[in-house]
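Cross-check.
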Amino acid sequence: MPYAKRVRKIHCSHCGLPGHNRSTCEEHRKMIEARRHAKGSDDWYVAQYDRKQKKRAEKSKNRTCSYCADTGHNRATCKHLAEHIEVTREFNSAYRRAFYDSITKVGMGRGAIIRQVRGLNDTGLFVINSINWENINIWNGHLRFFSHREPQRLPPFESKPLSAIVAGRTFYSGYPYDLDMLSHILSPSSIENWRKDIHYLSHDRDALFAEVVSPVPVESPPPGWFDCKGKTIKKAYVDLGRHALQLPLRAMHNFDYPSQQS
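Predicted model, tokenized:
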């Protein structure tokens, strides 16, 4: 049985609560101010606190943020990054709801049988055996050549041949052909070309998109999935970089980020 990955949590040495240290502890600050009121700013404990806070403030003035390149803060406290994450969360939440509505409408859940081309003149039947919920994001907009090794090509579905469910190899299945859902991850011009059947990949439609031939009820996603709770988006800004996430949103939704647009 593999060991679970240990996650290190900081604890405050003053109040004992997790998530912060003594230098940012609100209870510690209140205690200092109460002591300052009672004994004055010359009290040794208060004076020591003031010296540390002053040193910390001077140090932060020369700090450069690795995200926006502004000075006076770091990535962890960057207001631009926080704004961009919230914008991305909003659009990603809308896409996930559209995605779930789409697969629910056609019954593309675990156990569904789909038809999809997997090779030259090879149209086979496959069984969906996994929905990779955390891979369903606006930045995973590729319709083919899915890969577990590339953050922008993570597969939304995994399936196995109906004729070899137990021993067969695992395939990465594509999306259902739902242009309303795909409009969240493809540009308007691309969607229009698909509607007119003039997209340069139109001849590969049966290979890119899955057709459900035996639908099943779709399970509920993990708690918080619709609202994009957790660290998925924050991690994406680390793995992909700001431009990889901002540029697709601008192209698809004609949206400009609130600040730091370079």
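Strands lie at 113-119, 122-131, 157-161, 171-173, 211-214. The mean pLDDT is 82. Passed to J.P. for a second look.
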